[in-house]
Amino acid sequence: MAEQWEDEQLRLEVGQHFMVGFDGPELTAELKEYLAAYKIGNIILFKRNVKDNGQLRQLCADIQRCVRENTGHGALIAIDQEGGTVVRLESDGVNIPGAMAIAAAGGPDLARQAGRMTGRQLRALGVNFDFAPDMDVNCDPENPVIGVRSYGDTPEQVSAYGTEMLLGLQEEGVLACAKHFPGHGDSDTDSHTDLPRVTKPAEELERVELIPFAQAVKAGTAGIMTAHVIFPALEPEELPATMSRRIITGLLRDAMGYDGLVTTDCMEMAAIASFYGTAQGAVAALRAGADIVLVSRTMETAQEAVRAVEEAVRTGAISREALRKSTERILRVKKAYHIGEEAPEYDSARDMAQAGEMLRRSIAGYRLPGGEVPDIGPDPLFASELAYRATIVNNEEPRELSFAQYMAERCGGDSVLLSREPTGEETEQILAAAESHSALVLGTYNGHLKEGQRALLGRLDRVKVPVLAVAFGLPYDLSDTPEGVAGLAAWEYSQRSVETVLEVLKGERRAEGRIPVRLG
295 in helix, strand or coil? Predict the structure, then answer.
């Protein structure tokens, strides 16, 4: 009987160290049984779990009730609500612009406002942990996964905006989570699909990547998320930061003095699952000093990871005393943030309007003649690819969204659907067709990462009519355009961004933002 009680106590304790995801907008009977059996203490939500505000509020209330019955404690309910390309709420929620757009729209005070707006919305819905802000310094323009999720390409700018965002969230009672420690901004590989490696010397990491996290620690961030990235200068063994005791305990805890929650990024991402295995990665992360292991997709994988951690505790591979101290940290944070209490009422109309105005203010010009968008005339040619999901972490954009078609229907002229990787023949056809129109307006989406689009951008000076390039997503597309080609940075390929560009082209708004990274 004593052994059974010991097993139950161990499972209760281990369950506090897991955060799991699931499919669908409600708690099914199977899901409730799973949460009860494994005493899971925390949940992450994605867009697949959200229909609208009312449904989400009910789901969060159901989660709290279920987890409290199983564990005796409230649940941390997390979501990736960064803004821009990474939001999980539907259109009836407050979705702020992304980090780089916020930096383009104004000073760090806007990030504080954005944090408070996001915090008010999430808390009212029952979500208490936002996996934001992104504190990565976007050093590498070729970075395929951070990009516009970063506030800029200098540690000073990222620090200034990121700390304001996290303070705004926490002022509204929502835990912030600075990510991805010690930095994912100088990587040309996406950890969702492969295992990145950053080979900078330690001194350079200290001067760049670590500064925003040091500022987040100083500001009192409730959470920090680790990166599935290998840093040979910080960890001589072939281990990503998520699994490195030298990085989590030695650097973050001891050297930087951080005593808040450390969460992993999802352990089902290829950087962990394909190279180390999710279950063994979970054991290694907790041994390294992480508090919460994130397994966001598959129930069976989460169950395997829980059992692996329990076995590691039994055999001494994970110190029971260290685990207990980590459990105390989790419960201390839950108490401090009143986790599990009923969500307050909230009227989001004002904040939704303000979020829209922030995006409109973020549209930035590049080489605009006299600071004005060129006159596109009565018969422009618009060209663009369709919206698509640029990375796994991004939102699933409407597949039918075409900037070119949308603009032609409202401005006159013609539209051309651009391939994601246009061939030389396609490029020639578009350039030739533009000559019989009053202007060419080319919309790109992270085109500088695609060889065909870079070739097209580089040849726009062949067109003898006015040319305007509009970068939906990374602004680095504009640096591939020749002198004499005007540009707009629009930050996200979404319906609201396309509508705002239309206002700029029609002269109803100025492109008043500034591009917060170096181009060219």
Answer: strand
Catalytic residues: 192, 265
Q: Which residues contact 250 (CB under 8 A, 6 or more apart)?
A: none
**What's the chain's average pLDDT?**
94
Same domain? For 321 and 373 the reply is: no
In this structure, what CATH number is given to the domain that contains residue 202?
3.20.20.300
Angle at the Cα of 221 (from 219 to 222), degrees rounded to 5?
A: 150
CB atoms within 10 A of CB 278: 23
Pick the closest to residue 500 from 349, 351, 364, 352 (CA basis): 364
For residue 431, what are its two tokens? Answer: 């350039």
Provide mean pLDDT across the span 103-124.
98
**Same domain, yes or no: 158 and 237:** yes
* Residue 398's pLDDT band (cuts 50, 70, 90): low
Position 497: which residue type? S
Q: Cis omega before residue 73 (within 30°)? A: no
272 shares a domain with 123: yes
Whether 269 is in a domain gets the answer: yes
What's the pLDDT tens digit per position in 350-391?
A: 999 999 999 999 999 999 998 999 999 999 999 999 887 666
Model-level pTM?
0.95
CA distance 327 to 11: 12
For residue 377, with 0-12 CB atoms within 10 Å meaning exposed, 13-18 middle and 19 or more buried, which class applies? Answer: middle
Nearest to 98 by CA among 151, 161, 170: 151
d(CA 91, CA 499): 15
Last residue of a domain, one of 310, 341, 372: 341
Residues 488, 384, single domain; the answer is yes
pLDDT band at 397 (very low <50, low <70, confident <90, very high): low
Q: Tell me, what's the pLDDT at 390?
A: 63
At residue 180, what is the residue type? H
Residue ranges making up the domain that contains 268 = 97-341
